[in-house]
Design brief:
binds magnesium ion, 7 strands, alpha/beta, globular, two-stranded antiparallel ribbon, binds adenosine-5'-diphosphate, Rossmann fold, 5-stranded parallel sheet, 218 residues
């Protein structure tokens, strides 16, 4: 008796293709398979969180596929609902896509690896040149753009104006951000032009309702 693999090879029968759950999800959702297969950890413990993960996945998929125009994703709403938790995963998913060669940035002579950054404004925008430096990155996550907004004077005002400057420079560039402010408050406390850009050109904006409790009080 010949082993079955040898019999199949001799008969030139192709090995059966088994679709993984990731392949099936990718086919059904139109997501890039790397994004569909990423081990996302995000618990939807309140209906107000339903839109978050699908938007994050759609953003990552669009980045890897280098779709145009380049857009923003903002998660706005109360503390402790997983905004930072899921956006850090988005950066990790994109880093991994770059490391595996799924995502490359074309240049005049070939291509290069993408540049990503996670910024905490009060720390990373302290230097007055920082906004211009981070404007060049392929993808950035600006954590808690509302953090400087509650403070009127001093460091808070500086941070807020640097966030506004950076976001002006990030127009048409892949950008993730979160805030404990809604769009109306961003308009009033940070910059009206930025608020109006949050939903422009198919950018993803998720406003998590105020009544969604903190993950640890769920
Ligand atoms: N929806 C969620 N699914 C899973 N874990 C969560 C979720 N929301 C919060 N957590 C947990 O709570 C911690 C704090 O959440 P975090 O992402 O910092 O909240 P936010 O940025 O919205 O203020 C996270 O590190 C994570 O352990
Ligand atoms: Mg956070």
């Amino acid at each position: 008796m010949q082993p079955i693999a040898q019999v199949l090879r001799a008969a030139a029968v192709p090995a059966p293709q088994v679709a993984t759950p990731e392949d099936i999800e990718a086919a059904m959702t139109g997501l890039h398979p790397h994004v569909a297969g990423w081990p996302w950890r995000f618990e939807v413990y309140h209906p107000g969180l339903e839109g978050v993960l699908p938007s994050v996945k759609a953003f990552c998929s669009a980045v890897i596929r280098r779709e145009q125009p380049r857009r923003w994703l903002s998660l706005l709403g109360p503390s402790g609902v997983g905004k930072t938790h899921v956006l850090k995963q988005a950066l990790a998913c994109l880093q991994s896509a770059a490391a595996r060669g799924h995502w490359k940035i074309p240049t005049a002579t070939g291509h290069r690896g993408p540049q990503l950054a996670h910024l905490v404004p009060a720390v990373d925008l302290e230097d007055f040149r920082a906004a211009r430096d981070y404007a060049r990155y392929d993808v950035i996550y600006i954590e808690d753009i509302g953090s400087g907004a509650a403070l009127d004077r001093g460091a808070g005002a500086v941070t807020r104006s640097r966030i506004a400057e950076l976001l002006q420079l990030r127009s048409g560039k892949w950008t993730l951000m979160d805030a404990n402010l809604y769009r109306k408050e961003i308009e009033a406390q940070i910059d009206g032009r930025i608020a109006s850009r949050l939903k422009r050109d198919g950018s993803w904006m998720c406003e998590v309702p105020q009544e969604v409790p903190d993950f640890w009080d769920r």
